[in-house]
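Contributing: when you submit paired examples, paste them exactly as shown. First protein:
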Amino acid sequence: MADVRLASAQGRWILLTTVLGSSMAMVDSTVVNVALPRMGRDLDTDLAALQWTVNAYMLTLAGLILLGGALGDRFGRRRIFVLGVVWFASASLLCGIAPDAAVLIAARALQGVGGALLTPGSLALIQASFHPDDRARAVGLWSGFGGIGAAVGPFLGGWLVDGPGWRWVFLLNVPLALLCVPIALRHVPESGDGRAHGRGFDVLGAALGALSLAFVTYALIEATTGAVPVAVTAVAGVAAGVAFVRVERRRADPMMPPEIFASRLFTAVNVVTLFVYAAFSGFFFLAALQLQVVSGYSALAAGTALLPITVLMLLLSSHAGALGERVGPRIPLTVGPVLCAVGVLLMLRVGPGASYPTDVLPALLVLGLGMVTLVAPLTATVLASVSTEHAGLASGINNAAARAAGLVAVAALPLVAGMGPEAFRDPVQFDDAFSTAMPVCAVLLLAAAALAFTTVRRPPADCQHPECRTHASMTAPPLEGEPGGTAHSGE
């Protein structure tokens, strides 16, 4: 039974452990984009390798995050969390010493595996360990401190890239893990879900889903070569996706139960998520490069430049969630993407010699306000669209969908914008492609707004409500409950 009080010494240790673990993954996801130009020059590689540096991580994370939650339920949440931290740190070390782009990409894929183990585990440990009277406050502190980590990430990453070098973006995770693991083993109680024992794991479903994403991503990134392997992998990606759907329909205990999509609201909100997070991921991938390659910003200046978005989300996301509960999700999920589209289009003013106060900051403030408006209501609607016992699973699916959308966007957007392999070395070519890519992101956001306006309705009053009131991650919606199983199981 969960009975640890937040005010106790053990409660503070548990909170510290989970914040350290989740911050490793959150900070890493925000700083890598800032380091990409320096990685490309130091490793003498092309744009495709930079895309894979981002996507290899998102591929394994998106494909395995639901399985990671189920493993924690079955084998113990602390055990899987600690394994994830150790795995993530080991892969980070390999990233930091990678001699070439191929090793770096492989290590990033391994990082994603570690992230899939520790990300759902950090929140599940809080929900399983704390007394019910303290759980909401513990989750609030966890998400708030995680938001601070997300805010510090781009600044820290830029400082590291300009100072000791981009390799320290990854090496920094090692001492964090050395601090996190002993605390977890000493102070965090083990917990699991007794109902999970005897359940099978949908390893085949997870593998097919990841293979489908991998093949499609490869085909999009390498499409400009026109080679036969590109067409073959594209067909293989579609075939793996079809096989994934068939497996999920036939399994007794699937990773992604098809019946959960019987809720029209759940399906609609997930499609909105796909459009929104495809636009966000494409934007943040290209914006960090635009500021450095075209506008001449240092890595530190580029990382710091993006800070207003995170700060706005950190300060205002809980208020946006409360507003969404009062007015219903339809208005925030319509207005939010429209504001984001305006912010993205304002980035067209950012070119050579761009002024931060007059060119960059207005765009980021509008984009940040749009993200604040939509992210919390989106999560609340996902939870409200299914029965309470499926809320955790619904959140996990929504989180995975956002990451999958980002994966495809980072692969496809440079292709759509006409970026060549050496575009990030040529300011003129990159600026032209950026001017094409931003309207594409805006169209995705406007499509999300239109879909939300026509399909999203107010959920029932007695539905599940989010516990994560503060959220500052720009890569995916917050996880709620236990993505491998139920919403809130008490131990």
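Second protein:
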Amino acid sequence: MGTLDWIVVAGYFVVMVGIGLWSRGRINNIADFFTAGGKMPWWLSGISHHMSGYSAVMFVAFAAEAYRLGLTVYIWWSLTIGLGVGIGAFLWAPAWNRLRAKHDVKSPLEYLAIRYNVPTQQLMAWAGAGLKVVDIAAKWVAVALLLQGFAGVPVGWGIALVGVVTMVYSVLGGLWADALTDFGQFIIQGLAGFAMFFAVAAHFGGIDFMWNIWDQLPASHSDPLTGPYTLTFFMALFLIKTLEYNGGMWNLAQRYMAAPSGFAAKRSALLSAVLWLVWPLVLFFPMWAAPLIVPGMDANAEQAYVAMGKAMLPAGMVGLVLAGFFSHTMAMVSSDANVITAVITRDILPRIWKGARTMSADAQLKLARITTFAFIGLSMTIALTADTKGFVLKVVIALVAATMGPIAIPLMLGLLPWFRKVGPTAALTSTIGGLATWVFLYTEQQFLKDFTVSQALIVSTPLLVSLVLYLVIGFAKPEPSAERDALIDSLKTDAPDVEAVKA
């Protein structure tokens, strides 16, 4: 990296801190900190929802799979998310918003105490918070590996640098800072993504490289599903991503809650769905062509995007690409930290510490900022002590994808009227059974070296067990409740004042 590249990166960090300082003036209480007070424009909510699904993981782990295996990564990742979010625009996005507007909910798990009971809420809060801190640690490692590849900065220093800047603007600015960072990321990623795409097109002599490269690549690179990514894996991941990106990944539920109305949240989801179907193609085509430009990297494919950037981009643009990597990770981590803070301060602490229930508004806001600081610090500590080789893909697929289903199924299906009679017995059993299945299979594969336990099996089986337990116990042992019925029925329409504005 040259001087101009470093100037671009330094300028990006200054802007991020500036966003945090500006956003701080818009934060008057925890409703502003966690849900932007329901005042976020639908288009910003939609862009933020889309960009919150990215991190440097895409340019390390997923880019590596695109380099080694070709088309399949778009099919099992981007396509599943795009279709899932499109479905969720009608099923879940408006409901999340109406929870905030009608029930003063500030955390995605807050409604579970009424929908099921407090033990169910607490199990999912503790399990999800533990999962997220490891997930974020993987994202720190991913961005640090990219910084090391581009600039030779040691991984530990990279984690510390990006982590501290993220901590500053997250603690100051809350969800407003997250969303504005997402929008900045959208601009940076657009510039950097098109720069790489057109540089590759120029290398091959024109835009027709998009269809000509496949004849020069191994035949399996054009297969929709190949390698460990089977039809079973695809089907399981489609269900997982549908649940995850419509609120099972709690920070994405916040984007819908922050919109002005359920109708606006639906528009946000549809915008995000279209972006998921189209934009990843621009990012992946250079990686599909990469084996023809920087061959021989199969053993070190996690550095393939770095090699492409160095080979294809001019001075200054490399810095912009690197700033984009920072932006991806910092935006997602800030978003995750904000929602986990909401869960801790709204759902966990009031149950274990009586003082949290009687805090003043100013004290609640201060607690939220302290919790954000502590959560990011813990994730950085895990990242700094982890064995970085293979850590990113292992966490993203074998841990996050495999355990998201058991945590998300009661949360997400509990919002739908078809499951109104499914009660806490089914929800608790579903979550515990799914997580226990994952622990058994993961232990068999990783520690007992049972290689008949495939990646597809680890991802799909916990989800299937959890779903079956939820449905079978829920319908065999219905637990109807007038309070639950009233909650679910209230999510069908916007509040009367919002309906009047729309009319």
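If you have annotations for the second protein, write them as plain sentences, like these:
The CA atoms of residues 144 and 159 lie 6 Å apart.
Residues 155-204 form the longest helix (50 residues).
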